[in-house]
C-alpha cells in the first residue's frame, strides 16, 4: 500500500537502504517533571538486531511508501516529519522543496516500547543528510533529532548508551554481557502519556548508584538481576496481558525479565540459547510480535 505525503514524482538521484534497529531499556528510572512537560530520566539504552528497514531515493516531492496501518496520515509519520524538519532547520544546506521518496519495511510493532518510530526518524535524518549532500555530522543532527522525540537522538548512534535529561543527553556505556534476548509484545497497547500518570510517587531513586556499579560489573551476568524499570510494576497491574506474558517468560528462568520503555513489550535475558529458543516458542501464540535478538554494538 502506498501512502504519499505529497505526490511522488520521477526519481532524480541515488538510493540507499539502512536498518532501523529497535532498542530495549536495560534500566529506566523516571525522575522529576520538567518545565517543558517532559520528565528527566536515567536509562541504559541498547540497540538490538531486530528492526525495520528504510529506503530512500532523491525525488521531486516527499513521499512515504509503507505497510498499511503504520499511520493514518503519512504527514504524521516521523519519517516525513524528520525530512521536513531537516529542510526547515538547515535552509542554507538544502533547497526548501528538496524531495525524497521513502519506503519503509515495518517489522517492529507500534506502541511497543521498542523505539521503532524513533529509529525510523533517526534513519530518515541520516539518509536525507547523505542523499541531499548536506554534510552534517551526527552531533550536528542531534538537536533536530531531539525535537522529533526523546529516543531519536540515541538512534543516531545506537549501541549502548546512558541516557539522561529527557533521553537526549547521551554518554557511551560498555557493552553488556552478551545475552540472548527474547522479546514479546502482547495484544495490548500502552499510551505513554497515560503511563506516566500511573507511576508510584514513592518510587526509588537509584540511577546514580546503578550507573556507577555498571562500570564495575557490566561483564558479570549476575549483576543484571538488579535491572529495573519504573513502568514495570504499574503496567503489569493495569494490563493482565503484560503480567501473564512476563510470568510465562520468567518460568524459563532467565537472568531477568523486564518491561521495555513504557511497554507493552517484555524482554527476558538468557545466558543459554536453548532456553531462549524454548521461551520464544512458548510465548509466540500470545504475542502480536515476538523475536529472539542479540545486542548490536
List keywords for this structure.
Ribosomal Protein S5, domain 2; Alpha-Beta Plaits; four-stranded antiparallel sheet; alpha+beta
Would you give an account of this structure?
Helix 2 packs across helix 3 (about 140-150) and helix 7 (about 230-240) crosses helix 8. The chain has two domains: about 1-170, Ribosomal Protein S5, domain 2; about 180-295, Alpha-Beta Plaits (2-Layer Sandwich). A hairpin with a 4-residue loop joins strand 6 and strand 7 (about 170). Residues about 1-10 have low confidence and may be disordered. The longest helix has 16 residues, at about 115-130. Helices cover about 30% and strands about 30% of the residues. It is an alpha+beta fold. The relative contact order is 0.17. The radius of gyration is 19 Å and the shape is globular. The strands form two sheets. Strands 1, 2, 3, 4, 5, 6 and 7 form a seven-stranded mixed β-sheet that branches. Strands 9-10-8-11 form a four-stranded antiparallel β-sheet, covered by helices on one side.
Query: Which overall shape is indicated by the principal axes computed on the Cα atoms?
Result: globular
The first-level CATH class name of the largest domain: Alpha Beta
Q: What is the mean predicted local confidence, pLDDT?
A: 92
Number of strands: 11
Any idea what the CATH architecture of the largest domain is? 2-Layer Sandwich
Note the run of SSEs as H and E.
EEEEHEHHHEEEHHHHEEHE
Strand content bin: 25-35%
> Please, how many helices?
9
Number of domains: 2
Radius of gyration, taken over Cα atoms and rounded to an integer in Å: 19 Å
Distance between the termini: 33 Å
Instruction: Tell me about the largest β-sheet.
Output: 7 strands, mixed
Query: What are the segments in which pLDDT stays under 50 over at least 5 consecutive residues?
Result: 1-12
Helix and strand composition category: alpha+beta
Would you give the CATH topology of the largest domain? Ribosomal Protein S5, domain 2
- Give the % helix: 25-40%
Amino acid at each position: 500500500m502506498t501512502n504519499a505525503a505529497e505526490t511522488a514524482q520521477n526519481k532524480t538521484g541515488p538510493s540507499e537502504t539502512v536498518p532501523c534497529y529497535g532498542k530495549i531499556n536495560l534500566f529506566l528510572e523516571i525522575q522529576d517533571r520538567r518545565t517543558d512537560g517532559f520528565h528527566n530520566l536515567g536509562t541504559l539504552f541498547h540497540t538490538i538486531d531486530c528492526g525495520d528497514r528504510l529506503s530512500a531515493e532523491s525525488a521531486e516531492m516527499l513521499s512515504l511508501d509503507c505497510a498499511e496501518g503504520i499511520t493514518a496520515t503519512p504527514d504524521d509519520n516521523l519519517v516525513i516529519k524528520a525530512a521536513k524538519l531537516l529542510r526547515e532547520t538547515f535552509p542554507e544546506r538544502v533547497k526548501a522543496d528538496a524531495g525524497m521518496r521513502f519506503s519503509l519495511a515495518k517489522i517492529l510493532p507500534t506502541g511497543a516500547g521498542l523505539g521503532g518510530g524513533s529509529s525510523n526518524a533517526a534513519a530518515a535524518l541520516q539518509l536525507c543528510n547523505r542523499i541531499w549532500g548536506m554534510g552534517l555530522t551526527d552531533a550536528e543532527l542531534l538537536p533536530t533529532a531531539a525535537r522529533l522525540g526523546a529516543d531519536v537522538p540515541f538512534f543516531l548512534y545506537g549501541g549502548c548508551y546512558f541516557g539522561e535529561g529527557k533521553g537526549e543527553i547521551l554518554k557511551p556505556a560498555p557493552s553488556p554481557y552478551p545475552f540472548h534476548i527474547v522479546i514479546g509484545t502482547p495484544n495490548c497497547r500502552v499510551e505513554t502519556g497515560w503511563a506516566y500518570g500511573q507511576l508510584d510517587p514513592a518510587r526509588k531513586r537509584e540511577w546514580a548508584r546503578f550507573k556507577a556499579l555498571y562500570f564495575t560489573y557490566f561483564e558479570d551476568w549476575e549483576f543484571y538481576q538488579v535491572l529495573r524499570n519504573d513502568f514495570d510494576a504499574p503496567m503489569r497491574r493495569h494490563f493482565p496481558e503484560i503480567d501473564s506474558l512476563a510470568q510465562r517468560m520468567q518460568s524459563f528462568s532467565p537472568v531477568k525479565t523486564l518491561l521495555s520503555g513504557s511497554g507493552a513489550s517484555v524482554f527476558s535475558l538468557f545466558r543459554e540459547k536453548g532456553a531462549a529458543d524454548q521461551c520464544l516458542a512458548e510465548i509466540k501464540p500470545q504475542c502480536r510480535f515476538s523475536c529472539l535478538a542479540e545486542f548490536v554494538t
